């Protein structure tokens, strides 16, 4: 089992529904977010290119946050999901410094918090909150180890990228381009 | 003209627009940790080579700063934790891959060891303060007897502590300014240099002062060479490293780095120490204090500037 998220940048309109859904589902404190929208405009006027995408923890295979955590609070569970155990986290900030995606933040209660791929929903057979609410259905979630899963099929058929692959983290959030 | 606009719909406290997760306590700790490592290293080395008589400040007096620096440094680290009541979780596991775990364990051993070291010289440093209890006297005799053993343990531990203060930063590849292999040795050498400066401040013997001036000059030369290597490393690196280098060579931290660290913290005190050895009258306090300030500013520059650097995607 290897969970992955695939996000179609051609279909994303940047509405931030995924952000709000996540904040509601996971009781994210006001002023914080576990996922966010990035809008990137590139090129020289008048030939400009726009990319909209929803970003979050990439649940890296080679996760620097897990490597540098001094207590083991950051860990990887079945399916490759990177999680933080609040009662083991001392709030040293090493994982935040180590993340090339700045996907972690210090929760007002002190521990470090981040996207969990909604693993509490996955256990009930539901999709992550962000995926389930996307109005343009630009987000897909599934098992990369299963060649017939929607995500595997999409990655086979479409051109795609990951963010900052040069950081060597082997991210598992893919963007269709 | 190539235009590029990058906007993110995110505004996380202490993370956007640039990271401010590690504050001044971390810089102060890195300085104090390096200083303590250097002091303990010199005290242990001069004990092992049986030169205690010639270097009283090294083995007895300046080294008293080490436990104080370590305790203050640990307090600073603790202060910077945001989930403080769980700090003991550090000592429930050994994480080989995590520099911070290494540091936590080394500090757990080296801090009491540094106190024992100072205690072993108690009678000589404070001859008028009598240890009132018999068991304390017995314990002191035991510590004095084992001083050589402590020295053998302290040499590797102090080197690990000194290098770890740099590796703590260099292990993060997400921060291109920190992510270079030189930072560990560089912080070690800088820590040794600040320790040599402290010993010079404490020493009353001319021969010991001139010995540590010579040691310090060598350390300064090595440190300058390592800084050149570090810059060359960025220069030959990828785009993110080039951008990181700009902060030091042509940006926000250039004055801090070149004026306070390189010129006032290394070149000038090195020159003053050479002049002093040549027989010119230079108060030794001046280069020593410049080195200490330079070492502290260097930690601040690296911690603050590093958090401004990141991957571009």
From TrEMBL, chain A:
InterPro entries: 4Fe4S_Fe-S-bd (IPR017896), 4Fe4S_Fe_S_CS (IPR017900), ET_IronSulfur_Cluster-Binding (IPR050954). PROSITE patterns: 4FE4S_FER_1 (PS00198), 4FE4S_FER_2 (PS51379). Residues 3-32, 48-79, 80-109 form the 4Fe-4S ferredoxin-type domain. Keywords: 4Fe-4S, Iron, Iron-sulfur, Metal-binding. PANTHER family: PROTEIN NRFC, PROTEIN NRFC HOMOLOG. This is 4Fe-4S dicluster domain-containing protein. The lineage of its organism: Bacteria, Pseudomonadati, Bacteroidota, Flavobacteriia, Flavobacteriales.
UniProtKB/TrEMBL annotation, chain B:
Signal peptide: none annotated. The keyword Cell membrane applies. It is a multi-pass membrane protein. Its main location: membrane. The keyword Chloroplast does not apply. InterPro entries: Electron_transfer_protein (IPR052049), NrfD-like (IPR005614). It is found in: Cell membrane. The chain crosses the membrane at residues 26-49, 61-82, 102-122, 150-169, 181-203, 215-235, 255-275, 282-302. Keywords: Cell membrane, Membrane, Transmembrane, Transmembrane helix. It comes from the Bacteria. Belongs to the NrfD family. This is Polysulfide reductase NrfD. It comes from Maribacter aquimaris. The gene is nrfD.
